[in-house]
Amino acid sequence: MITRTSSLFLRTLREDPADAEVPSHRLLVRAGYVRRVAPGGYSWLPLGLRVLRRIEAVVRDEMNAIGAQEIQFPALLPKEPYEATGRWTEYGDSLFRLKDRKGADYLLGPTHEELFTLTVKGEFSSYRDYPVTLYQIQTKYRDEARPRAGILRGREFVMKDSYSFDLDDEGLERSYQAHRAAYTKLFDRLGLEYVVVKATSGAMGGSASEEFLAVAETGEDTYVRSTESGYAANVEAVVTPAPPAQPIEGRPEAQVHHTPNTPTIETLVNFLNAAGLGREFTAADTLKNVMLKTRQPGAKEWELVCVALPGDREVDMKRLEASLEPAEVALLDEADFAKNPFLVKGYIGPKALQDNGVRYLADPRIVPGTAWVTGADKVDHHVVDLLAGRDFTPDGTIEAAEVREGDASPDGQGTLVAARGIEIGHIFQLGRKYADAFELDALGPDSKPIRITMGSYGVGVSRLVGVLAEQNHDDLGIIWPREVSPFDVHIVIAGKDEAVAAGAEKIAAELDAAGIEVILDDRKATPGVKFADAELVGVPTILVVGRGLANGVVEVKDRRTGEREEIAVDAVVEHLVKLVRS
Amino acid sequence: MITRTSSLFLRTLREDPADAEVPSHRLLVRAGYVRRVAPGGYSWLPLGLRVLRRIEAVVRDEMNAIGAQEIQFPALLPKEPYEATGRWTEYGDSLFRLKDRKGADYLLGPTHEELFTLTVKGEFSSYRDYPVTLYQIQTKYRDEARPRAGILRGREFVMKDSYSFDLDDEGLERSYQAHRAAYTKLFDRLGLEYVVVKATSGAMGGSASEEFLAVAETGEDTYVRSTESGYAANVEAVVTPAPPAQPIEGRPEAQVHHTPNTPTIETLVNFLNAAGLGREFTAADTLKNVMLKTRQPGAKEWELVCVALPGDREVDMKRLEASLEPAEVALLDEADFAKNPFLVKGYIGPKALQDNGVRYLADPRIVPGTAWVTGADKVDHHVVDLLAGRDFTPDGTIEAAEVREGDASPDGQGTLVAARGIEIGHIFQLGRKYADAFELDALGPDSKPIRITMGSYGVGVSRLVGVLAEQNHDDLGIIWPREVSPFDVHIVIAGKDEAVAAGAEKIAAELDAAGIEVILDDRKATPGVKFADAELVGVPTILVVGRGLANGVVEVKDRRTGEREEIAVDAVVEHLVKLVRS
């Protein structure tokens, strides 16, 4: 069916919307793809819905290709399964909660792990039933604190979420790799520029985890990548390379020094360098002991924790929190210090901490044999040459220090640089968290139960509309990749001549008959207005039917390159069919 | 792609679910199409989702064919537009309401009139923009008091809702008729047995209105139809045929009689027939005056209303309420009688009512010249031969009396019989209610604003899955119409022979290559189990590949008729392709 601009529910805007922060938001509103209804809530107008549906079709295609089966859950869900896994409360303010007329508690599904698990448990019982992978393409709800950038971060959005159910870890690994390959194919088909980064698993729990990030300056997610290799990771997931351990034998004894008025790293380093100890100290030689308290979910009591890191590094709270998850983390207040007099502010050292049973977690750089200047647990005193593995032994390592551009890449190749992206996919090995919560077992060949292990895989389907516009636009408007463009060819009637209109209609009818999706600008508007709208709307191929028709030619314009080509009117249908199908 | 039963996420059940009241619910659960998640909330398993999607495709097809344009609104909507139209409160308990993290009020959309109106207002301004028709296929939410019958009446369901926007009444009539024709085509394509009934417009407001009801014994909606003509109507919408007026000249005077102890129709009729008045009286000769009070939306005060109807008819509260909508209706209590001493219980007549300014609404049968026995506004007294149009004149007519089987059909042909159905579509001329609420105007050619008039049209898309199963099943299971069946052909491998399996696979592959959707039962189960599942699942054509294969034949079974036919294996693909495409 030919779409005619004269009757299409589309009005393009000359002005940018006031609330648009990023190009995709600005252009999708201006070109009439979406309209804002509420914070983080958008209507899809005809053009937008066409793009969304085409993306959905590609996602569905790649999911079906790996044998995933499509189902669909309600969005309005009862509280009970989410209470069983603790997520009813863990989700906090991000969960939309409501009551029905009888006062029963419901939620709007943010993700459906509970339902997938319960549904498989309801249908399957034998090991012969497994593996199985299910997915849905569904509307999800999250009460984001700061919905932003139009459909890039909405409160109501479309997601493809799939779950794999396997009998063992090898099976899970196969399912995970199948999804990884499917996502790669999918994002390649959409022509996206993206990186796959190692990720932490967040509130979901689980182990192996990677994110697909679309490269975008305006992206909310920061990641780092190697200057030399393909290594890329979320900052939270960067594993600090540990230096080799050093010998302990024959190293100088630790010595306590009187270091008056040196409660900060800077004052300490200056004091030591002025003290004539025969060597130069830097902040990297000092050991900073950052006091925190943590509380496990459901626990009442806080526990003291000390995070030790080289004095030239700051704590990155996001990395720290990701490392300690699911525990809550807070800084100490005055009352905490008062209750624990062994904590000498500005002069805290590992000795008093470990004597008093405080958990002591060290940055991976603090390997055995490294020597440090640190607090001596006494006002105005520090200890020099405190040797890890001899004078103190951490209770464990922790990834809490900031990652800096120029740090060595964890894979040993090159150094790290920072970049920004938008999360478009996330795959991870969820493991048995939900299977445990709902006792999802298969009866094995020996009649013994086998606890199922799960993988979880998501694609932000509606977000992809925004991401594609973000990666494919210029000053004039959007430039859709062919695979998702709302139409294949945008025909502009440039001229008031009846013959021109008739010629354009004839070409449109022939293209339509050949299965090409055509939008025909048949409005009584100036060619200038029509060209501007065609550039803004972003169909990759623009066909201009104008004065040249009298001489038997029409013009084909490539929206991306701007190249124009005159084509004989008799050959143009074949030319365009070939172009669209290529 | 061939779907294999061995890996399909499908487990059929031998037992009926405990909560299933109607056949469609029972069978859709047993055959593994849907699963219950919450009251009125269902998951779509792979087979169910396939049927739902096929129905959606047919609906979309017929909507596009009449030039309707698809868009999509959020389901989570801000309160404000619904407050502007009063529906935020009018919807009462049926509306799911919730608050976001900032305490702002939201609702889950039950219908989207407000959003459609506001969206058109946002895009369009000139009379040249109109007419336009928009639709969406979307998940809707209503907190039903009694969700029932599985997906027939859920709290989360899929609806197609469309709205037409026209400049004048003629345009609205055209849009209405276009939808009426599209719905007829659509329901015919789905092979549904249905009637189109005249309907009242309910809480929506507006004038012309028809419902499409699928004929079903288990339906919730009662309607009446003529024994002779095509007339059909909702009971609420039946217009009582008025008898011809009768002459007033020369009729006997009204006379008050002392009728002791006759507060009921029965005691009155018995008394009169025993009184020797020279004629026989029946309840139909008496005029029953039913006292009520009504209150307009937003009003504080109640107003007295009297509904007069022949004494042999009861008031049908649903018809009465539909007639008085949007006013609230209640019966009088003792305090009301005490406040209005002119109301003499059991002996109320039109005189005192009209003398005291009570609105007096009469059944359409009470035409001028009809004579009645009714209360004389005095205990133990009635008046005989009170003539309508002479002794009293009602303030208007009202459809409040019950409709009975055997009543004359309003179209003058035959009599009425009652039947039951399930609402599958509703079309009505909404008029300017929402355009008025949001001042939706088009600037006319003379630069004067033209208030837009709207039509509203709905199809219960997910409900249709249930309705189709309700109309298409037998004791063994569902029998899908071809247009919506989850698969075209169900192949059963009946035999353990390797050659049989290989033969079935070969046929499946050839059918698949020909674009036929195949489900192949390749499980290691007995033929009996496979046959029972195939009958239950309800694909219209079953192909049995078994022992006969050695002799070059396979069996094609028609699920609906039960007919079996042996077909040469070389000819079967062509045979089936023809069958499916026919």
UniProtKB/TrEMBL annotation, chains A, B:
Gene3D superfamilies tied to this protein: Anticodon-binding domain (3.40.50.800), Bira Bifunctional Protein, Domain 2 (3.30.930.10)
Superkingdom as given in the UniProt entry: Bacteria
One record GO biological process: prolyl-tRNA aminoacylation
Keyword field contains ATP-binding: yes
Coiled-coil ranges per UniProt: none
InterPro entries documented for this protein: aa-tRNA-synt_IIb (IPR002314), aa-tRNA-synth_II (IPR006195), aa-tRNA-synth_II/BPL/LPL (IPR045864), Anticodon-bd (IPR004154), Anticodon-bd_dom_sf (IPR036621), Pro-tRNA-ligase_IIa (IPR002316), Pro-tRNA-synth_IIa_bac-type (IPR004500), Pro-tRNA-Synthase_IIa_type1 (IPR023717)
Record has Nucleotide-binding as a keyword: yes
Catalytic activity: tRNA(Pro) + L-proline + ATP = L-prolyl-tRNA(Pro) + AMP + diphosphate
Function per UniProt: Catalyzes the attachment of proline to tRNA(Pro) in a two-step reaction: proline is first activated by ATP to form Pro-AMP and then transferred to the acceptor end of tRNA(Pro). As ProRS can inadvertently accommodate and process non-cognate amino acids such as alanine and cysteine, to avoid such errors it has two additional distinct editing activities against alanine. One activity is designated as 'pretransfer' editing and involves the tRNA(Pro)-independent hydrolysis of activated Ala-AMP.
Name assigned to this protein: Proline--tRNA ligase
Organism: Amycolatopsis mongoliensis
Name of the encoding gene: proS
